Amino acid sequence: MKGHCLTPERQESTPAAPLRIDVQRALKLFLFTLVVPVTAAFVLDQVAKTLPILTMAAVVICIPLATVMVNRAVLGDLDRIFAIVAPELPLEEEQAPTTTGADPGLPLEVDSLS
After folding, report:
1. Could you tell me the pTM of the whole model?
2. Do residues 9 and 26 lie in contact, with contact meaning Cβ atoms separated by under 8 Å?
3. Residues 87, 93, 98, 103: what is their CA dihedral angle, to the nearest 10 degrees?
4. CA dist., res. 95 & res. 17, Å (int)
């Protein structure tokens, strides 16, 4: 299944990104927003002999930041995949009504009773 897939801009077979979530990108975001800063804060705490202070500050800042960044990256990829696999349907206003003044959500028998 390597090679061609549909893109949302052009609905034709083109060489594009595969229909997968980019785990490598999410892993890079996780490493650079959580693992590296918390490790650096821990090392600085060890060097400065203030063990819990910098580590706690880094954890309080980096865990929510990493959560938001990684979730946005994964959900963005998921949204891209949804746009390719299941494009949006046209709105009901664009469809022509069957009879004038009839409610398109009701059968004709029920609509004529009101």
Report:
1. 0.60
2. no
3. 120
4. 34
Taking the C-alpha atoms of residue 92 and residue 59, their distance in angstroms, rounded to an integer, is 49
Pick from 18, 22, 23, 21: which is nearest to 3 by CA?
A: 18
> Residue 70 corresponds to which tokens in the numbers above?
């990684």
pLDDT in tens, 26-76: 999 999 999 999 999 999 999 999 888 999 999 999 999 999 999 999 999
Segments making up each domain of the chain, as ranges: 22-87
Candidates 64, 65, 39; CA nearest to 54 is 39
Q: CB neighbours of 44 closer than 8 A, spacing ≥ 6?
A: 54
